[in-house]
Amino acid sequence: MPDPSTPTGDIPPSTYPGERLGLPEEGIGSVGRVGRRIAALMIDWLIANVIALLVGPYASTAQSWATLGIFALMQILFIPTIGGSVGHRLLGMRVVPIRGGWIGLWRPVVRTLLLVVVVPALVWDSDQRGFHDKVAGTVLIRA
Question: How many angstroms separate the CA atoms of 67 and 46, rounded?
Fold first, then answer.
């Protein structure tokens, strides 16, 4: 039971991302940092764009929607099967549930739907988890 004399919200700040989650500061199992995340996103977007171009010639708006759909499908398929997107895995990261175990099917769907809206991915906490990861109960760690 919390100490009633401690004001709500008086949690000491973390000394590194992932500390409150019980993750190591560096190395395997630590939170995937911003540079790797952005690079993985760029890799995934490039792959989705190339696939969309190969599938068929589109007008620019249709091309954008096709790329977004392929990107989302890749996230939903690869997170539960290989532990992350192609970009995540190439850069040595994986998506795991906070409570451990298999990530399941609903977490990748929720996480991806929020990710393609973009804004939730830009809202982070002190553990460098985007809103999409918080809602899905996941964290992107180094593998």
Answer: 9
Instruction: Sort 141 into a burial class: Cβ within 10 Å, 0-12 / 13-18 / 19+.
Output: buried
Ordered DSSP codes for 2-52: --TTSPTT-PPPPSSTTGGGT--SSSTTSBPPHHHHHHHHHHHHHHHHHHH
Is residue 80 within 8 A of residue 104, CB to CB? The reply is yes
Give per-10-residue mean pLDDT for the chain (143 aa).
53 84 94 93 96 80 88 97 97 95 94 85 83 90 93
Given this model, what pLDDT does residue 11 score? 64
Beta-carbon contacts of 143 under 8 Å, excluding residues fewer than 6 positions away, are 28, 83, 84, 89, 92, 93, 94
Phi, psi (degrees; rounded to nearest 5) at 17: -60, 130
For residue 115, give the nearest of 66, 62, 64, 76 by alpha carbon: 76
Token pair of 133 as six digits: 């990861």
Q: What is the token pair recorded at 111?
A: 């996480």
d(CA 117, CA 102): 25
**Residue 4's pLDDT is what?**
55
Whether this model's pTM surpasses 0.85: no
Residues in the chain: 143
